[in-house]
Write a structure and sequence with these properties.
By secondary structure, the chain is mainly alpha-helical. Helix content is 61%, strand content 8%. The chain is built from 8 helices and 3 strands; from the N terminus they run ααααβααββαα. The longest helix has 30 residues. It is globular.
């Protein structure tokens, strides 16, 4: 059985976005329980030259629904806007991302196959087919930022584990 482009992208994004939402709940509860300033997590970075936690969460949106929107337009540019700065605002953004992805029809994703998409950042332009853009650029970026979201919380002491990152697997029905 062949796997569709939809099946290779959207369900995994939904799975991990639900996990990111739960990670946000655990991080907020951890701050409340420990009496920590939420910014100690929200602005945390794994290294000085990396973006903070809020950017990592925002980037899960950029490289999921933002990637789909880019393919629709035929051009994707990274979102350089300021990320939400609170746990509640990040939760809203993740929830909106989940709802937007749930609204995407599988037939639309399949119609993307073979389309031209350009990655544009400043003067740089990189050509892709839609499927190569989604699978070789946006999907790895999505996983990187979801993983970094988890890693920052784990590093800061939030009691989470692998199951918190994986979320709810899609078992055989």
């Amino acid at each position: 059985m062949a796997i569709s482009l939809y099946d290779a992208t959207i369900p995994s994004c939904l799975q991990l976005l639900a996990a990111v939402s739960n990670l946000l709940d655990k991080a907020q509860a951890f701050c409340a329980e420990k009496g920590l300033d939420p910014n100690s997590l929200l602005q945390a970075r794994l290294a000085d030259d990396m973006q903070p936690f809020v950017y990592q969460v925002k980037s899960t949106r950029v490289h999921s629904v933002g990637a789909i929107e880019g393919v629709r337009r035929g051009s994707f540019s990274p979102d350089t806007s300021t990320p939400p700065q609170t746990f509640p605002d990040l939760k809203i953004q993740v929830a909106e991302t989940i709802e937007a992805l749930k609204a995407v029809e599988p037939s639309e994703i399949e119609s993307f196959i073979g389309r031209d998409v350009r990655f544009v950042f400043g003067e740089r332009q990189v050509p892709y087919t839609a499927e190569n853009f989604l699978l070789s650029f946006s999907q790895p970026n999505f996983y990187f930022h979801a993983t970094t979201t988890y890693d920052i919380l784990r590093w800061k002491g939030v009691p989470i584990g692998k199951r918190d990152f994986i979320g709810r697997p899609r078992f055989k029905q």
